[in-house]
């Protein structure tokens, strides 16, 4: 429903053409490669591939990215910008702002939800990429040995990454650490 509503809103703008719609991140990346749009509008969390991963996959091309999401978390905003997004809007913003954001991002400007702009840089994400990756798998209930196998690490190294993440987040265990990291938008 949200996908259709956004497309319909944008299609009403005389200077904006909706060239494709995708239901998941993989389809979005394929649509970008096929249609070569000026701007991709995506969400943070989608099936098959996250919006963050989709942004990374097309980074360096000519398509600019806007994240439109419910996640009002500074960590997500920072990760979106690091992934190459030029815009980050909350779904709660007025619909009129989306078309304006598309135009601005198309021009190479950044558009960031004003409520998050200042808050985003207050608290730094203490996790390394590897700690985040290990913690994400652990949060999915994957055992240490399996995480080690998937990431081509030793079980001891995986335990060390988990221990570091737990320590950095002042968590009581891996589940608590994953919960804290998710709440802050770091996972």
Structure explained in plain terms:
Helix 4 links the parallel strand 2 and strand 3 (85-90). The model has no long low-confidence stretch (mean pLDDT 88). The chain is elongated. It has helices at residues 2-11, 25-35, 51-58, 74-82, 96-106, 114-117, 129-139, 144-151, 155-168, 174-184; strands spanning 39-42, 64-69, 85-90, 111-112. Strands 1-2-3-4 form a four-stranded parallel β-sheet. It is α/β, with parallel strands linked by helices and 187 residues long. The chain is 52% helix and 10% strand. It contains ten helices and four strands. It has two domains: 2-121, Response regulator (Rossmann fold, 3-Layer(aba) Sandwich), CATH 3.40.50.2300; 129-184, Orthogonal Bundle (Arc Repressor Mutant, subunit A). Helix 2 packs parallel to helix 3 and helix 7 crosses helix 10.
CATH architecture level-2 label of the largest domain: 3-Layer(aba) Sandwich
The CATH superfamily of the largest domain is known as Response regulator
* Arithmetic mean pLDDT: 88
Q: Which sequence of SSEs, written as H and E, runs from N to C?
A: HHEHEHEHEHHHHH
Q: Beta-strand percentage?
A: 5-15%
CATH class of the largest domain: Alpha Beta
Radius of gyration: 18 Å
Trace the largest sheet across and list its strands.
Answer: 1-2-3-4
Low-confidence stretches: none
Query: Shape, please?
Result: elongated
- Under CATH, the topology of the largest domain is which? Rossmann fold
Structural class: alpha/beta
**Helix share of residues?**
40-55%
Number of helices: 10
């Amino acid at each position: 429903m949200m996908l259709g509503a956004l497309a319909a809103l944008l299609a009403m703008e005389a200077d904006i053409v909706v060239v494709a719609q995708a239901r998941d991140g993989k389809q979005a990346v394929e649509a970008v490669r096929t249609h070569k749009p000026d701007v991709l509008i995506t969400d943070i969390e989608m099936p098959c591939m996250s919006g963050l991963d989709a942004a990374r996959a097309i980074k360096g091309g000519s398509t600019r990215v806007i994240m439109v999401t419910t996640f009002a978390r500074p960590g997500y905003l920072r990760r979106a910008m690091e992934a190459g997004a030029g815009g980050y809007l909350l779904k709660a913003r007025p619909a009129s702002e989306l078309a304006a954001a598309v135009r601005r991002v198309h021009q190479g400007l950044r558009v960031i939800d004003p409520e998050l702009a200042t808050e985003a840089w207050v608290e730094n994400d203490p996790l390394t990429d590897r700690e985040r990756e290990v913690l994400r798998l652990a949060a999915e209930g994957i055992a240490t040995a399996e995480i080690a196998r998937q990431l081509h690490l030793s079980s001891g190294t995986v335990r060390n990454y988990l221990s570091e993440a737990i320590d950095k987040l002042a968590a009581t265990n891996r589940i608590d650490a994953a919960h804290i990291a998710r709440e802050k938008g770091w996972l």
